[in-house]
Amino acid sequence: MTLIIGFKCAEGVCLVSDTRITNLETQEFEYESKVLTPLQNTPFIAGAAGYTRLFREFNRKLPDKVSTRFNEVQLKNLRALIDSGLSRKEAVERLYPKTNTEQQKQEISQGEKDSDQVPEESQYDVPLTYSYSSEDFIDDCKGLIKEISKQVEDDPQAIEVLIGLKRRDGESPSLHFIDSQGNEEEIDTFYPIGSGSPYVRMFFNKLYDYDKTIMELITQAFRTIVYTSNIALEASVGYTNEHPIEAYTVLNNGAAGIIRFKNELEVISNLESEMRGEFEVLIKNSRVKPLEWAEP
Q1: Nearest Cα residue to 164 out of 152, 172, 153
Q2: DSSP state of 150
Q3: C-alpha to C-alpha distance for 248 and 255, rounded to whole angstroms
Q4: CA–CA gap between residue 256 and residue 134 (Å, rounded)
Q5: Which of 143, 181, 135, 7 is closest to 62 using CA atoms?
Q6: Are 163 and 137 in contact (CB under 8 A)?
Q7: Which residue in 119, 136, 121 sits closest to 71, CA to CA?
Q8: Comparing C-alpha atoms, which of 97, 94, 99 is closest to residue 77?
Q9: At what angle do helices 214-230 and 264-275 cross, to 10 degrees?
Q10: Which pLDDT score is estimated for 124?
């Protein structure tokens, strides 16, 4: 299992995750990222929780599924652009004006014989007919989850997914939860998935505020994961200095991906000290009067 905390705020959407994986064969801990950015330069992130083998299968298959669907859309656009009167080279330049390598452009052109290089700047302002949309991404995630969860039909929490995405310019990013049956729900505040979920409301019910900065809320998510791992001792939730807690965002400007922090290990260490100084001392030095036997 795992713990991924998704939330919305004024700056965008964020998924914060631990990195511990339990190897079911050896019962030893491994560590890896649990949140994906399945298509480069697109405002989509996804994090899965559940049985190790199921969410690993989801993480392995989702990028391939999204990439295949995107390439299918681009091929339809290529055909439409050629039908509009552009040459194959012009159509490829319209689809990939700057961002792709010559090799990728040659692949999409399917062996174009012209030896001239594709120009750096697009000269062909022809609108594209087809696109791989945020709704397509949600549908692909839902379909993949339903396919994978058939392996464990008797457990409604066999695999769960949180998705952050930006639909279109001018709109704020949105947060979505998908259960193992492929049912999807848009989330307006925060939502946790994984075995550590019961501990999240303990913090976020008191500390969450949409207007707080994204860094403030990420810090609260870090605090929750530190508590779940170190105080609640949820064995399937954890991290190390080499594989620390991770945060992925989709910001209002459409930028998506993992966030790098200059003081991450320092903050985690301070949170661990806070836990030892507050919770452990409180429990060990409780002044609550013990229960007493009732009179017979």
Answers
A1: 172
A2: G
A3: 10
A4: 13
A5: 143
A6: yes
A7: 136
A8: 94
A9: 50
A10: 54
* Dihedrals phi, psi of 72, to nearest 5 degrees: -65, -40
Q: Which are the contacts of 226, defined by CB distance < 8 A and separation ≥ 6?
A: 245, 268, 271, 272, 275
Rg of the Cα atoms in the chain: 23
Q: Which two tokens stand for residue 89?
A: 């080279």
- C-alpha distances (whole Å) from 2 to each of 88, 178, 236, 273 are 48, 16, 6, 23
Residue pointed to by tokens 């295949």: 68
Q: In whole angstroms, what is the distance from residue 176 CA to residue 138 CA?
A: 9
| One-letter amino acid of 190 | F
Strand ranges in the chain using DSSP code E only, listed in sequence order? 4-9, 12-17, 20-22, 29-31, 35-36, 44-50, 159-165, 174-178, 184-187, 190-193, 246-251, 256-258
Strands 4-9 and 190-193: antiparallel
Q: Which two tokens stand for residue 210?
A: 């949409």
CA 242 to chain centre: 20
- Give the residue carrying structure tokens 């913090």: 203
What tokens were used for 189? Answer: 């505040």
Residue 113 pLDDT: 42
Residue reference for tokens 């791992």: 229
Residues 151/57, Cβ–Cβ less than 8 Å: no
Burial of 100 (0-12, 13-18, 19+ CB in 10 A): middle
Residues of the chain with pLDDT under 70: 98-125
59: tokens are 């993480």
Give per-residue pLDDT as tens, 38-53: 888 889 999 999 888 8
